[in-house]
Amino acid sequence: MPFSNQDGFLNSPLFWLGLFFVTFPLNYLVYGLNDYNDEQADAVNDRKGNFLFGAKAPRKHLDGLLKKIAFVILPFVVIFTYLSGLKMLLLLVFMVLVNILYNFKPFRIKERPPFEILIQVGYVTTAFFAIELNNLEMLPWQTLAYLSLFAFQAHIAGEIMDIEPDLESGKRTTATLLKRKNSKFLMLVILLLESFLVWYWFQDIVLASFLGVFALWLIFDVFIFFKEKPYTLPQMKLFGYAINLSAIFSMAWVLYSGKLLLG
Questions:
Q1: 181-203, pLDDT tens digit by residue?
Q2: Which of 130, 118, 65 is nearest to 92 (CA)?
Q3: How far apart are CA 211 and CA 196, in angstroms?
């Protein structure tokens, strides 16, 4: 998103270095720590154990993971600090700290609803990372607000699919407390708010319509198709592929249009 008004950034080595970092080392940190601390919940979760939804790893495969994560992350911390200075170092430390607070006791915010949803704002730090590394202009506050809402909505979707295994493993989430239908209503409210704000703030009819269609589907989901019924594994995989494809198309649109940079 921060590159939407930039020309020639694809020729920048910093862009590709940053993209690689976010794609692998940072993901290895985020989802490695998640798997390391969710062994019991993942063990009873049928949707886990694949490249679409993530690993289902036994403890013997998770032993030593923290050292591997540190080995992968630390060289990039040094490189990016050298390239961008103290502000970048503080940002990277904050990224690591957010994941520690989210996953590890005594904090383990992932089991302290509704804070496990609110802390998803940490994903927005990837935009700050891109801005700092590539010396770009700061995003408008409206864009940051939209990105935060999008992160909340995406996390709730995952929680809804995991209600049964989370209950079985004793994991507390907003979705296990609200139950399926109320969680879908919460997700629907966020989707409608996103759609309105994208239309009102940015006059982006395309993205607002896309979010509106998603919200319409959720209404059919709640009142007609699924109601309180859990999704089957094939259905969850279908939704997973659809969400990934829609994410790719929406990223292309955001980059092409540049509308979300207009505060």
A1: 999 999 999 999 999 999 999 99
A2: 130
A3: 9
Please tell me the distance from the alpha carbon of residue 237 to that of residue 53, in angstroms, as a whole number: 8
Q: What is the 3-state secondary structure (H, E, C) of 75-115?
A: HHHHHHHHHHCHHHHHHHHHHHHHHHHHHCCCCCHHHCCCH
- Residue 2 falls within a domain, yes or no? no
Model confidence pLDDT, tens digit, residues 105-135: 999 999 999 999 999 999 999 999 999 999 9
The reply to whether 238 falls in a domain is yes
Crossing angle of the two packed helices 233-257 and 141-161, in degrees rounded to 10: 170
| Number of structural domains found in the chain | 1
Name beta bridge partners: 47: none
Which of these, 183, 186, 181, lies nearest to 227 by C-alpha position?
Answer: 181
CB 239 within 8 A of CB 225: no
DSSP 23-39: HTHHHHHHHHHHHHH-H
Query: How many CB atoms within 10 Å of residue 256?
Result: 10
Backbone angles phi, psi at 54, to 5 degrees: 110, 175
First CA to last CA distance, the chain: 13
Q: Angle at which helices 125-134 and 65-84 pack, to 10 degrees?
A: 40
Structural domain span for residue 40: 9-261
How many CA within 13 A on the CB side of residue 1? Answer: 20
